[in-house]
Design brief:
- The protein contains eight helices and 19 strands.
- The protein has a single domain, classed as Porin, CATH 2.40.160.
- A 16-stranded antiparallel barrel has the order 3-5-6-7-8-9-10-11-12-13-14-15-16-17-18-19. Strands 1-2 form a two-stranded antiparallel ribbon.
- The two termini are 42 Å apart.
- By secondary structure, it is mostly beta strands.
- A hairpin with a 2-residue loop joins strand 13 and strand 14.
Length: 458
């Protein structure tokens, strides 16, 4: 299917960055050295990467708040690193999996140990004066390659306008929602996940274009209540912005500008924080190469987040719904799609409870659905669909521990910031069916996954 569908298949079928895809967010020790704050200063009860109210403020204001505000730059370079080691077990093995330098399978296509699953380097914090950022480079064990990962560089300012306060700035980033400060949109919503377990085939273009595009956007926050942003993205294949997508194969080439827009109302009151948001993204993707006919995708979404921060307890509820309208005339003409139009939606919610600097429990349910198309969603072992539908329904439960956090030290963070996670993911429907979903005899429950993670920043 992939060879025939070309650009369309990559856009709609994103196994590596689908709804339950690769984790891409981290706590960064250089932020702690800069601000003088422990992990719980910016993250939910100290559990990275979820941001609390102050963490959102810190990012919104350009990553520049510092305990060394009397200087234009930090006394220490804003450098950090991290590593992730993991173990993955699925109910049934996956045929055809092969070992890589950092991936070992104890049995045929199962019992995977990744050492590391990822290795990361960060340039993160205040660069100079009002300019700060989060720049992430990642070695991915499943791909055995280095690449630019989530990157967001900002310059910001705040002005008092009579009785009102206006924070405004510019963001230079490499993917829609990378710059978002709420943990509800694709770039930051899924904190951990296996890179070798099967994931639902369908994902919206907002997910699939991460690290495939880059752009400069403008945003404003009025009275810490109303947030608005617009960012036009361009293809990362060539041009001035292309360095932000280095190492990422540009499989989807955007025609012209791809605008992203965001509007959020947010309120913080005592231990309570709530936000209600709307997001949109429009893009045209060439059916093949970087010229010729295009398919167009319009994403519209709403999201809600509530946090209750009352030490030693922290509770979060998050939800998001994204609906994508697809214009597939170029794909239909090329014989890569049955229909000239379609749609796709993703819905997910999360409920989390944390005990400060010790333990966290998360439960989540997700639902993916959309139009029937036997060419886009074709039978294929493990990743395909017998029914021609993208429907997947499931959930996960997760336990997180940071048992050594009481020994936190800004200069030696590796042991106290080490986080352990145990996750179990379950599917009742996968790629359109519960049984024999791929046309090769595999059931949705065969993809149920046990996942263990050790995550060490330093």
């Amino acid at each position: 299917m992939r060879g025939e569908c070309g650009r369309l298949a990559v856009t709609l079928v994103g196994l590596s960055i689908a709804l339950l895809g690769t984790p891409r967010a981290f706590a960064v020790p250089s932020f702690a050295r800069q601000t003088g704050q422990p992990c719980s200063g910016c993250h939910a009860a100290g559990f990275y990467p979820e941001l609390n109210a102050f963490g959102r403020w810190f990012k919104m204001h350009g990553y520049v708040m510092s305990a060394h505000a009397d200087q234009q730059y930090e006394p220490y370079p804003p450098l950090s690193a991290a590593q992730m080691w993991s173990y993955t077990y699925t109910n049934q093995s996956q045929p055809g999996l092969s070992k890589l330098p950092t991936l070992t399978y104890a049995s045929d296509g199962n019992n995977n140990v990744s050492y590391p699953q990822q290795a990361n380097f960060f340039l993160a914090g205040r660069f100079y004066g009002p300019v700060g950022g989060f720049v992430m480079g990642t070695y991915d064990g499943a791909d055995n390659a280095w690449a630019f990962d989530n990157t967001d560089i900002r310059v910001t300012s705040t002005q008092e306008l009579g009785a009102h306060s206006l924070t405004y700035g510019a963001t230079f980033n490499n993917g829609p929602s990378v710059q978002d400060v709420w943990n509800t949109l694709p770039a930051w919503s899924q904190y951990i996940g296996s890179e070798v377990a099967p994931a639902p085939a369908a994902a919206t273009s907002m997910s699939n274009l991460s690290a495939q595009v880059s752009g400069i956007g403008l945003y404003a926050l009025l009275d810490d209540f109303v947030y608005a942003e617009i960012t036009p993205y361009a293809s990362g294949k060539s041009g001035f912005f292309s360095f932000l997508t280095l190492g990422n194969p540009t499989e989807m080439v955007v025609n012209g500008a791809a605008p992203y827009w965001r509007l959020v109302c947010t309120e913080n009151s005592g231990p309570h924080s709530v936000s209600l948001g709307y997001v949109g993204f429009y893009n045209q993707i060439f059916q093949s190469g970087s010229s010729g006919p295009t398919n167009d995708f319009l994403d519209n979404g709403v999201d809600l987040q509530y946090q209750w921060d009352s030490a030693p307890q922290f509770v979060t509820f998050r939800s998001s719904f994204i609906w994508e309208n697809q214009g597939l005339s170029a794909a239909q003409a090329a014989g890569a799609a049955q229909h000239g139009s379609g749609d796709l939606y993703t819905f997910q919610f999360w409920l989390e409870y944390y005990r400060y600097n010790l333990i966290g429990v998360t439960g989540s349910l997700f639902n993916i659905g959309g139009s029937h198309d036997n060419l886009i969603y074709a039978p294929e072992p493990v990743s395909g669909s017998r029914t021609g539908r993208p429907t997947s329904l499931g959930g996960f439960v997760q336990l997180n521990l940071i048992p050594f956090s009481q020994w936190f030290h800004q200069m030696w963070p590796a042991l106290p910031m080490t986080q352990f996670a145990l996750q179990y993911t379950m599917y009742s429907t996968f790629n359109g069916a519960s049984s024999n979903y791929d046309g090769y005899g595999r059931s949705a429950s065969d993809n149920n996954t046990l996942y263990l993670l050790v995550w060490t920043p330093w």
